């Protein structure tokens, strides 16, 4: 036990000593590989495809990568990863385009862009809003890359200590804050949340292997798909709500380029 | 949903209170279904850990308690008399909801491609007031694109119709 502790401490010291230089070395080595003309061309193609995927509502970065994965089968692994990550970054930005121009967020993460991007577009400042979104995407991505380069080893260490009790604590905090932050009656929130839990329990029980709440229906064996619940509750609900409020598409002419 | 349809025939609007009561009752029914289902599986702690119905049973208990409070609040405490939906909006919602239900039935019976031709064309002509030839071009085009996309490119089989497959008449599978 004592010996093991000593060993661990020694390893930590080694990690601290070689920590920064080694990471920077690796980072620049990576840049050297990425900066070849072929890889730069792939980045251009990847970002363009990613923007197209991001503009389409419902298709996100992960889906886009899955669909365009066959394109990379003939490439070397490094080029393939460069292209796929560019598709992902492109999709992150592409979602902002529809939220600024049409007030429809292409991706879940571009919902916040509709709050100030769409009003700007209606005032005729669509170009500025798009530039701001693109610049913030670029700066954010750059900082994220730098952070992950230096923090990844620390996060990896911490992640292994994250066990079932910690997961339970996080989920409990989440669901309690749902109840606390809701404006309406807390009991309605609890009822809806429990309905979600009940739907999630349908299907095979992972502990005992028994079929739960399928009532003899083989279709229910795999349980309810999350996507179906989301589209059914949010997508269709949103369409019906917009019909109830009356079909009035509020749009305004906006120029992308100053003439 | 069926309650909504019945109420649409009356002249009076549906109040929020009625909807709240109906929703709370539906939640109680679902809670009871979950409770009986998990009791059938066994909701105790056996020698090798929790039985399959252990977690759903307590979920259903919480659901029944909170829905009972909801029912009590809706029926007795806050008598919200404001309208849940007025007649004009209700008609608008039904104009989308009923064709959508027919479309889903059509997907099951005659397949997704032919049903979506009818669905898109119907909406373009009826709600969108487009010309008929435009509606036909767009709906057929969308369906053919979807067919090529899913059957050939993604290789994902979508429902072709359990009762009758109209694509067989044209000679494609």
Low-confidence stretches of chain A: none
Instruction: Please describe the biggest sheet of chain B, giving its number of strands, its sense, and whether it closes into a barrel.
Output: 2 strands, antiparallel
Q: Which ranges of chain B are low-confidence, i.e. pLDDT below 50, for 5 or more consecutive residues?
A: 1-11
Biggest interface goes to:
A-B, 26 and 35 residues
Mean pLDDT of chain A: 78
Report strand % of chain B.
5-15%
N-to-C CA distance of chain A: 75 Å
Shape of chain A: globular
Structural class of chain B: mainly alpha
Total count of helical runs of at least 4 residues of chain B? 7
Overall average residue pLDDT of chain B? 83
Strand percentage of chain A: under 5%
Side by side, the strands of the main sheet of chain B go 1-4
Radius of gyration of chain A: 24 Å
What oligomeric state is this? heterodimer
Radius of gyration of chain B, taken over Cα atoms and rounded to an integer in Å: 24 Å
Shape of chain B: flat
Q: Please, how many helices of chain A?
A: 10
Fraction of helical residues of chain A: over 70%
Number of domains of chain B: 2
Name the features:
heterodimer, A: 259 residues, mainly alpha, two-stranded antiparallel sheet, 2 strands, 71% helix, globular, B: 173 residues, 7 helices, 4 strands, disordered N terminus
How is this structure best described in words?
The complex is a heterodimer of chains A (about 260) and B (about 170). In chain A, about 20% of the residues are buried. The mean pLDDT of chain A is about 80. In chain A, about 70% of the residues lie in helices and about 0% in strands. With about 260 residues, chain A is mainly alpha-helical. In chain A, helix 4 (about 60-70) packs across helix 5, helix 5 packs across helix 7 (about 125-160) and helix 6 runs antiparallel to helix 7. Chain A has a domain at about 35-160. Chain B is mainly α and about 170 residues long. Chain B has two domains: about 1-85; about 85-170, no CATH class. Helix content of chain B is about 70%, strand content about 5%. Chain B has seven helices and four strands; from the N terminus they run H-E-H-E-E-H-E-H-H-H-H. Chain B has helices at about 1-10, 15-40, 55-75, 85-110, 110-125, 130-155, 165-170, and strands at about 15, 45, 50, 85. In chain B, the strands form two sheets. In chain B, strands 1-4 form a two-stranded antiparallel sheet. A two-stranded antiparallel sheet of chain B has the order 2-3. In chain B, helix 2 runs antiparallel to helix 3. Chain B is flat. The model of chain B is unreliable at about 1-10 (pLDDT under 50). The chains are: A mainly alpha (about 260), B mainly alpha (about 170). The interface of A and B includes residues 187, 188, 198, 205 and 246 of A.
């Amino acid at each position: 036990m004592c010996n093991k502790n000593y060993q661990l401490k020694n390893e930590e010291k080694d990690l601290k000593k070689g920590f920064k230089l080694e990471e920077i070395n690796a980072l620049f080595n990576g840049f050297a590989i990425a900066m070849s003309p072929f890889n730069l061309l792939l980045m251009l193609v990847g970002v363009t495809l990613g923007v197209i995927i991001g503009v389409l509502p419902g298709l996100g970065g992960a889906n886009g990568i899955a669909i365009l994965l066959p394109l990379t089968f003939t490439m070397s692994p490094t080029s393939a990863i460069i292209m796929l990550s560019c598709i992902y970054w492109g999709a992150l930005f592409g979602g902002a385009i529809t939220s600024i121009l049409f007030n429809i967020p292409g991706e879940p993460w571009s919902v916040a862009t509709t709050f100030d991007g769409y009003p700007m577009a209606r005032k005729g400042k669509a170009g500025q809003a798009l530039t701001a979104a693109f610049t913030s995407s670029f700066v954010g991505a750059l900082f994220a890359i730098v952070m992950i380069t230096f923090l990844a080893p620390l996060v990896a260490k911490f992640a292994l200590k994250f066990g079932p009790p910690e997961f339970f604590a996080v989920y409990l905090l989440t669901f309690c804050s749902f109840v606390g932050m809701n404006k309406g009656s807390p009991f309605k929130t609890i009822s809806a949340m429990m309905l979600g839990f009940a739907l999630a329990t349908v299907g095979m029980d992972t502990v005992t292997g028994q079929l739960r709440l399928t009532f003899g229906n083989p279709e229910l064996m795999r349980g309810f798909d999350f996507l179906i619940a989301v589209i059914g509750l949010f997508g269709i609900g949103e369409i019906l709500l917009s019909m109830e409020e009356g079909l009035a598409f509020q749009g305004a002419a906006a120029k992308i380029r100053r003439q | 949903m069926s309650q909504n349809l019945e109420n649409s025939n009356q002249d009076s609007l549906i109040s929020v209170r009625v909807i709240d009561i109906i929703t709370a009752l539906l939640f109680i029914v679902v809670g009871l279904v979950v409770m009986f289902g998990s009791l059938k599986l066994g909701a105790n702690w056996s020698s090798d850990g929790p039985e399959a119905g252990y977690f759903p049973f307590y979920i259903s208990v919480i659901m029944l308690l909170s829905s009972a409070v909801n029912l009590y609040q809706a029926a007795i405490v806050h008598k919200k008399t404001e309208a849940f939906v007025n007649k004009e909006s209700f008609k608008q919602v039904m104009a989308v909801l009923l064709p959508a239900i027919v479309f889903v039935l059509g997907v099951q019976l005659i397949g997704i491609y032919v049903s979506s031709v009818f669905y898109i064309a119907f909406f373009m002509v009826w709600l969108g007031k487009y010309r008929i030839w435009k509606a036909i071009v767009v709906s057929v085009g969308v369906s053919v694109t979807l067919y090529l996309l899913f059957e050939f490119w993604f290789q994902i089989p979508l429902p072709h119709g359990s009762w009758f497959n109209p694509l067989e008449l044209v000679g494609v599978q």
